[in-house]
Amino acid sequence: MTVWIGTSWKMNKTLAEAGDWARGLAGHLAGRDLGDVVPFVIPPATAIAAVAAALADEPRVLVGAQNAHWEDAGAWTGEVSVPQVADAGARIVEIGHSERREHFAETDETVRAKVATTLAHGLIPLLCVGEPAEVKDAGDSTGYVLDQVARALAGLAPEQLSRVLIAYEPIWAIGEHGRPATTAELAEPFAALGESWGQQVRGLLYGGSVNLDNAADLLGIAEVDGLFVGRTAWQLDGYLRLLEIAADR
């Protein structure tokens, strides 16, 4: 089974910092057998090309973009398109993160459009879904997340679905002040995601306060095909340790 271990740097790292991290990863992986582990890194847009160049001799590591517009070109000041991030070296596009939904008015409709455009250009959509604390407290986490996925992937053919990654990131568990989820809390949502989408999409990932202490347990949850990691992976040593945990699972 393929195990995905990825990280998004959000709005962090200069070009020099990004290059150092990527070159360090390339050097560490040179000549090493990754087995069924697929590493990926999603830097800020300014560093996509630099990170891709630093990892040019390590095609096993996929580079991504944190966002891309649903139109290929046009009068969209401040935006970048899927063809542009692909040109910079991205092979994955992160779509629908809760911060994009909350702060930048991302909707289910724009998320669906971005997924479709990403697929049309041969890149991998990484669809992020997750419920806020009030939904969890009301006991409707599973229904909320399944609805998000259904809206984002509506109308896609089986071949298209087979290229999609889904990252379940409960909003109450992510970020600097997030509370790490227990495996018991994640069992039901992942069981439902697995039943509805597990055989159709490329993989189901978990993200939300992932650290070196809980990574192995999270990878042990049924239906979890990988981890999408924040702060723990921003330092190269932390990311390398996560790769080891995945390989040793």
UniProtKB/TrEMBL annotation:
Q: Which reaction does it catalyse?
A: D-glyceraldehyde 3-phosphate = dihydroxyacetone phosphate
Mind listing the UniProt keywords for this protein, alphabetically? Cytoplasm, Gluconeogenesis, Glycolysis, Isomerase
Domain of life assignment: Bacteria
Task: Spell out the Gene3D superfamilies in the cross-references.
Answer: Aldolase class I
One Pfam family here:
TIM
Chief location of this protein within or outside the cell: cytoplasm
Q: Where is this protein localized, as stated in its record?
A: Cytoplasm
SUPFAM superfamilies according to UniProt: Triosephosphate isomerase (TIM) (SSF51351)
Q: How does it assemble?
A: Homodimer.
Instruction: Name the family.
Output: Belongs to the triosephosphate isomerase family.
Protein's UniProt name: Triosephosphate isomerase
Name the source organism.
Kocuria aegyptia
Q: What is the lineage of its organism?
A: Bacteria, Bacillati, Actinomycetota, Actinomycetes, Micrococcales
